[in-house]
Amino acid sequence: MTGDNGTRGGSRARHLAEDARVAHANGKTAAALRCYDDALAELGANSDDDLLVEVLRWKGTVLRESGHTEAASRLYRQSLMVAERAGLQAARAHALNCLAIIAQRRGDLRETERLYRTAAEIATLVRDHRLLGMIEQNRGVLANMRGDFVAAEKRYAVSLRAFERAGDSEAMSWVLNNIGMLRTRRGEYEAAQEAFERALLIAIVRKDAAVESILFLNLGEMWLAAGDLERAERSCGRSLADAIRRGDRLTTAEALKCRAKIERRRGAYERGLASLTQAQQEAAASDDRLLGAEILREFGELWCAQGDSAGARTAWCNALQGFRMAGALHDAANVEQLLQQLPS
Description:
The chain is mainly alpha-helical. It contains 17 helices and no strands. The chain is globular.
């Protein structure tokens, strides 16, 4: 009798988890979290550790992508604890990879590297090629932050080939987004647009609203860098509206920062400051050192544009500290240049 109930409970939990994943892909964050909570409640009375580690990790990722960093970290640690207790090596590697992303967001790069290295060793041992591709991609993001664009490009290329061989279109869209961002930073706008649009096609076909929103945001940043304010505003506005609808505070903050840049370029300084203030409020709970520093850098740009050198200096000094703590060496060097150009 107990065995039958356990089987039915595990089956219901699995269905709830699948519903949650579909809801998350469709941008229904609140519904996804409710389904994950229901699945965890079902699993509380059963001992399906294989499913429990995944549900804890999947729910953590929904929270992480929405900017709730500490709550995500707690779930990843729980997932790791269950995986270690049950001897589930692949699940352990997945949890370590997710914890590395949290450490990277918080600027703890030594811990980030340790966690990625351990996760990669375990993934190699259990021959989880998809996870190895994910780790290579994440290491590429880290190299990009440090300004090592050659290393970043190599890791992204390895990761993309792995996902293409596996026919994993979801993961391909993630890597293509990162490739687009890298090409934007290098001023290769046509190549960046090609990568973003390829990723966008995948996201639209998959009905992946979260990835679609991020891609429109990064397309907006690309158009802004290329000097096309009209296209930048359309892409950024679409991403912002979608992020607000989904309750995604992290992408909301990023999109508000992008909008502030556009407003500064148009001379709408007061609107730009209002957008940045709102972005700072949205980002406050995310523990994202890099985003916080980026917002401060833009505050400095706005104050500098208005002739407030003292305000710009304060913002850029704080941004410089944030970029250094995040390990974003390329951005730190950029802010150092801005400070040197200010009148004494």
